Amino acid sequence: MLRPGDWLVMDYPSGSPSADRARLVSRFAYEPPTLLMGAGATEELGAELIESGIDSVLVVCNRSIGELDPVIDPVCAGLGERCAGVFSEVTGDKRLTTAWAAAQTADKLGAEGILGLGAGSALDVATVTAALVDHDCSFESVHETLLATGRVPFKRPPRPLVTIPTTLAGAELSQGAGINAKRTEDSFFPGGISDPSLCPVITVYDAELVAHTPTQILRGSTMNGFNKGIEALYSPSATPVTDATAMRGLSILMTWLPTLTKTEPSIAELDAILEGNMLVQFGGSRPGTTSLSVIHAFGHGLRDNAGVQQGIAHAIITPHVLRSLFEQAPCRRATIAKALGVTEDSVVDAVKTLRDELGLPTRLRSIEGLEQHMLLDIAEDTLADGLMANCPVGVDLELDDMLEILERAW
Fold first, then answer.
1. Tens of pLDDT along 8-20?
2. How far is CA 380 from the centre of its chain?
3. pLDDT digits over 223-235, tens only?
4. What domains can be seen in the chain, in order of their start residue?
């Protein structure tokens, strides 16, 4: 019996919107956050919290954002009396201890919600914080459960979550987050949390805040967000809705991401990039499914084994993943090509060209601390990643294939 999301090989009229789609039935169930978009949108935060019935929020960010007046001041001003306080202790390694400390701070201040501000690490920690506020378990219990299951236990419902990205990693519309628990004195265990109730209630895209992020950091985060659009198109969870948003988003990003080569891109250019970044994510993380697939699994493997930043990992590995996928199956290459504005045979080269225009690394061998003998462990961990279950239709990647992709990228 066919279920929503099952795929069949079908013939569609040439040139029709579904000409390269093999899906017979698709299901799209998604409750997105309220989206505030545009330069200066942060000014509307207080009014939007009133609309959502949230009396106060704790701002969760890293120290650099907490001390960056042109970013933190407009956020606090937009919140007004609804700002319960600022917790600025997030670090790039996204520690469970940090989320727990933030949750304890929210409890102490009586914050009804959590506002994540900054890069993907801050948004992930804020998401976990929202799940840990007013938790009825001890930290030791939460820590042990995470080590045992890979998941953070939490009491539903979590506190309402607001997200404001300042980079292009594309973490602000997710219903899940990664978090790391200390396993030994020198190592951490990568775990996470995922639940539809963790989807933000409000997300703010404000180019005036993003303008204060150094362009080098913005460029370094681009491929993580960009690839959400690529994978939304070839994932088995693709729907006509996500096709429309991902294709439009990729088209916008192909046009405007090269402006990040400037020292100071304009507010209008950043606003366009944020629009594209929002669209490629829209509906990708929803109840019961995700559009994240092979590329993001490789990102996890490189991050967890060698500490490679996700955007950089994606920049290096993506062309090699796409080439390998296209060798096995169509993977909706025609649709991806249309979104990128290139021919089918030029998809891989178009992604490489964009990466190279942005001045991103092209080889794994250039990553400090990553050695070639580590590739086998990375291949094994990537193959075991849960996102590999979301491979494109017709693709069957084995360990040798994973290792070959990494060797090509080396």
1. 433 445 555 556 6
2. 22
3. 999 999 999 999 9
4. 34-210 (3.40.50.1970), 215-409 (1.20.1090.10)
